[in-house]
Amino acid sequence: MGRPIKMNAVFFFHEADASSDEKILYLESKYGIEGYAFYFKMLEALTRSNNFELHYNAITLNALAKRFGIEADRFNDIIEDCINPEVAILKRNNGTIYSEGLKKRMEPLMEKRLKGRMQYETGSNFGGRKKKNIEKNKISASETTHKRREDNRIEDKRREDKRKEKSVREERRGSKNGSDISRIIIESRSDSPS
Known about the structure:
By secondary structure, the chain is mainly α. Helix content is about 65%, strand content about 5%. The chain folds into 2 domains: about 1-140, no CATH class; about 145-190, no CATH class. Helix 1 crosses helix 2. The mean pLDDT is about 75.
């Protein structure tokens, strides 16, 4: 079985004019820079989470408040303002919290991953050739490690043989005395047409 599809990301785009968005300005006017920081720290937390969602419960919220460096009561006030339908920076649904904007921005990434997975599973990503048998081609991590070690051992032996061969050639060249070399040069000159 291949590795599971990654359902989160390690980055999100931060637009240069994000601070001029009226909803972010609202948070900043009400909570100061803490409101602005809250929003982007929340996007970071959501981006790292599966499906770009977090559980909406006391444990998660208190842990986030601690991570964000905001008192729990103030954190809850900010999050409630973000969920407020008039602001709607964040959504709460079925015990989760998420950002529709973040999910929308991550759709191309998730579609690309899904497309890559489909190509792998159907074998259509191999220069037009279908894989004969996906299960047959799968190998375990230990087999891969063993294969690498074996390949490295063979490569090391090949390099060592090459070094020895080069050393022997250099010894042969060094053992020839000057008269042999001059004789070879003279013979090669006499063979050439004048």
